[in-house]
Structures are given as structure tokens and as C-alpha cells.
Amino acid sequence: MDIACPECDTVLSFEDVKEYATQLDFERYELLAVLAVVGSTEQFVWCSGPDCNSGQLHVGGAEQPIVLCNLCRHRTCFVHRTPWHEDLTCDDYDRLQQDPANFRTRAELERAAEQEQLEVDRQEAERIDREQREAQEMRRIALKRRAQEQQNEATINKTTKPCPKCASNIEKKGGWYVLPCPPLVINMLTFAVPICSVISPFFRIVSTMRVLQCHCVNHIVMGLKQVSMLTSLGTRYRHRFCWTCLGPWNGRIKCGH
What we know:
Helix content is 36%, strand content 14%. The chain is built from five helices and twelve strands. 13% of the residues are buried. A two-stranded antiparallel ribbon has the order 1-2. A two-stranded antiparallel sheet has the order 3-4. It has a two-stranded antiparallel ribbon with strand order 5-6. It folds into three domains: 3-98, no CATH class; 111-160; 163-257, no CATH class. By secondary structure, it is an alpha+beta fold.
């Protein structure tokens, strides 16, 4: 710390000041000289308290930016050399200075990001739950449909026999043991004979005619007044067979079974 002569501007040495200054002035000069030397170092921080002129070395540096005054206990920011910015990190303080209107603290940004992530997680959980419920419903419907199909198949296997010629399933509801396939009126003696029809998954018609041949294309409920229609239908097969042995009908009243 340099002190010049007020008349000739000659810089006084430390010894000159000590020789000519009073004891009180010299002690003050000595303190200021020490502070001037120490204050030029990066780690020296002056207290930012309003009524404190103290300063000290802060070995923590920017990694520990809060400087606690040894004299008045006031807190100073090592990075900004200002009173410590409460609730703000040094990065927050810099962003506050750059854009005060749109400033949000790091903690606020983290909370906002956390809320956003929670909302994303909630929507994802709802989507997964919805897909699981839809999959369960689809499995339930599929199982129900499969059970119905198995029940239908069991009923078909129990109550029907396939035509040996066209493999159409036929259910016999009564009448004679000869089953014709497809429909063709042989004579007009009346008794119940079941014939094929397109009622999925098997064919079934109960008629009051004598010997009929089942038709494998159209679903027709036949009666005595439909004889002319039956004889005019186009057919692929006119196979007559025995219900008991499924063999070709030989024209006898009864087969050997």
C-alpha cells in the first residue's frame, strides 16, 4: 500500500510511515497494507455485511461458496462477492441476473420435471391396465366361443352321421332307415325323413315325405306342396344310404343291421 508525500508526491517507504506517523495511524496503515496484499489473492473475501469491514481467506473456494464472516457471522457468496443468495445456487443466481422475468430455480425446474414424469408414468400405467383388461376380455370371449364350438361339435358328433357320399352331417329325427342325399321325391308315401340343409355347422330338415335325397346347397323347409320344387332343384349327389350301416341303400325295406 503506497502513501505519497502531499507536497512532492514522493512515495513513502514502510519505514518512513512508521517513523513519522502516530502509533494509531501506523497501526491502521499496517492493517490496510496487509489487507491490500492479502486482498489481491483469489481466496481472500471481504465481508459483505453492511457494518463490517472484515475480510478473510476462504480455502473452500467455489466448491463451498458460502463464506461465513469470522467477525460478524454474516454470509457472503465467494463466487459473486455479494450477500449470500438464499434458496439459490450460484447457477440459479446467474440465470436470475440474465432473465429475471422468466427465471425458475433449479429446484422448481426439478419439481416440474418430476410432476411431468409422474403424469407420463400415470398415463403409461393406465394404458397398460387398459390393454391388459382388453386382452383379458378377448381371452374370455375366445374361451366362450371355443366352449360353444366344442359344445356344437359334441352335439354334432352325438346326433348326426355324415353322408357317405358328400360328407354332409345329417340328423335323423325319425322315420325310415333309408336317408337320401340330395332331395328327390321317390314316391308320395308319407313318413318323417330328415334331410340335409345349410344350418351351420350341420344340415337338418324334417320333412313329411317318403324317401328324400338331401340337397347340399340350399336351406329348404319342405312339405307336401313343394314336390314340384324338389324335383326341379339342381343336385350334385343323389346318394341314398342306410342310417345304421351308412352303406348304399339296396332298395330293401330293411338292411341286414
